[in-house]
Write a structure and sequence with these properties.
This protein has 466 residues and is an alpha+beta fold. It has helices at residues 13-23, 31-50, 57-64, 84-96, 111-120, 131-152, 167-178, 182-194, 202-206, 210-230, 283-298, 331-335, 338-348, 358-361, 364-370, 418-428, 438-449, 458-462, and strands spanning 73-74, 81-82, 103-104, 274-275, 306-314, 373-378, 390-395, 400-404. It folds into two domains: 9-278 and 435-462, 2-methylcitrate dehydratase PrpD, CATH 1.10.4100.10; 283-404, 2-Layer Sandwich (60s Ribosomal Protein L30, Chain: A). The chain starts with 12 loop residues before the first helix and ends with a helix.
């Protein structure tokens, strides 16, 4: 384990990050960054709508609606008025339910954490939250969390500490939106760190539904932490390099703490490698799904003619080729299954929500095709993390076709257009738990596209509830 020299509390990287949160203005963002933030916000609204009746969402909402009529938060789609932390629990769980939210190549998930948290807590603000304020809050949270996870090199490791720390995205965004001062930001993040927990990757290994709950859990906790900090409750300040700070618990040796503060305020890491997802599956599957689709279309491949499929994946993608992934019994297993997603793409092309219904999971022809798929792991750090996994398809007549798709739809080299994003939005709508008026949904899209002009974010929320 790498050893770190203990430093004075006030020199901890958290202090510089808190300065960034407090001092960043909307005018500090480029037009491109504003555009990316707006697209991610619309994307998250779409996946919340589509996820509103998926997986473990109904029992979460059934529990939370006991408190309807009390509090400042609103549960999207369902429309319940509840305490803000509980609204965060529901909205955060819905945001994660489809595994369809954005993903940063080195920083992990962003908008599934900070967008539902902020939306749930709009009622806690002392004044109307403008679209510009919301975008700025989005950006500072996206940056803190991206730097945290990039510094931890989380995408290169599949076991040990730390897990995904959703509070590092949601916390700073909420702090900025609520106008917390630097001391309050530091105390809030310290309180969040206090309740972060330690190993939490086992849920992925077992394919448990708490994968979906984690975003709601973090939203609930972050909102409570902000309220406590604003009320004067204190938390630890040196959360990274303190005597028992976060870095002390990381078991691998290649952590880069300098990433936390290097060029902070000048370079915005979150906007450099943020990808929107076209497929309703783990990001590790996307380059292979896209590659299979391209080969299928370019060479008119009939899946019945396939003899063998071989792929190479990154160390992080090992979670998607475990034994349980070769015969998935649940939607969660299949969404995290490289062989399942490749086979579905070979047979039907798109991998969206209908790819994971009971009929598809039990399809004997798909299960048979999956047994023709082989996957090897490359641990070389020069190997791509997500995009560009080599894929080779061999047909029964001996023909071989190969690809290493680096331009997956939605990734930084092939970003989604507004039209593609709107198409994804409308693909999510039929899965909503409650039917929302079409005119309201069209208005919600337009509001997101011109978010910087909104004077009160409740205008958007109003369109997303019955």
């Amino acid at each position: 384990m790498r050893a770190y020299k203990e430093i004075p509390i006030e020199q901890d990287p958290a202090f510089a990050l808190a300065d960034m949160v407090v001092n960043t203005k909307y005018e500090d963002l480029t037009a491109d960054q504003v555009e990316k933030a707006k697209k991610s916000i619309l994307d998250t609204v779409a996946v919340i709508i589509g996820g509103s009746e998926q997986n473990c969402v109904p029992p979460v909402v059934d529990f939370i609606k006991r408190y309807k009529g009390f509090g400042e938060g609103r549960v999207l789609v369902y429309g319940y008025q509840v305490p803000a932390p509980l609204a965060g629990y529901a909205n955060g769980t819905m945001a994660r339910a489809l595994d369809l939210g954005d993903c940063h190549n080195t920083g992990g998930h962003i908008s599934e954490f900070n967008v539902p948290t902020m939306i749930s807590a709009i009622g806690l603000a002392d004044k109307p939250v403008t679209g510009k304020a919301f975008i700025t809050a989005y950006a500072v949270g996206a940056e803190w969390g991206t730097r945290h996870h990039t510094a931890m090199r989380l995408q290169y490791h599949t076991t040990g500490l730390p897990g995904e720390a959703g509070w590092t995205w949601a916390g700073p965004s909420l702090a900025k939106m609520l106008g917390l001062n630097k001391d309050q930001v530091l105390n809030m993040m310290g309180i969040c760190y206090t309740s972060h927990g330690l190993p939490e990757q086992q849920k992925y290994v077992e394919g448990r539904e708490s994968v979906r709950l984690q975003h709601g859990i973090f939203a609930d906790n972050v909102i409570k932490s902000a309220m406590m900090a604003k009320a004067g409750v204190t938390g630890p300040l040196a959360i990274y390099l303190g005597k028992v700070g976060f870095l002390r618990f990381v078991i691998w040796d290649d952590v880069e703490p300098e990433v936390l503060t290097e060029d902070l305020g000048k370079r915005w890491l979150w906007s450099e490698e943020l990808a929107l997802k076209p497929y309703a599956s783990c990001k590790f599957t996307h380059t292979l799904v896209s590659g299979m689709n391209r080969l299928r279309d370019q060479h008119h491949i009939d899946w019945r003619d396939i003899m063998d499929i071989h792929c190479m994946v990154s160390a992080g993608a090992q979670i998607c080729i475990q034994p349980v992934r070769w015969k998935p019994e649940t939607k969660g297993d299949a969404m995290f299954s490289i062989p399942y997603c490749i086979a579905h793409a070979a047979m039907k092309g798109d991998v969206f929500l209908d790819a994971f219904n009971d009929q598809e999971l039990a399809d004997p022809e798909k299960l048979e095709l999956m047994q023709k798929i082989r996957a090897d792991v490359c641990t070389d750090e020069s190997f791509p993390i997500f995009d560009g996994f080599p894929l080779e398809v061999t047909l029964k007549d001996g023909s071989k076709y190969s690809i290493a798709d680096e331009e997956v739809p939605g990734n930084p080299k092939n970003p989604m257009s507004w039209k593609q994003l709107e198409d994804k939005f409308w693909k999510c709508v039929p899965y909503a738990a409650v039917e929302l008026p079409e005119q309201n949904l069209r208005k919600a899209i337009e509001l997101c596209k011109s978010l910087e002009n909104i004077q009160d974010m409740n205008e958007l929320v109003d369109k997303l509830i019955p």
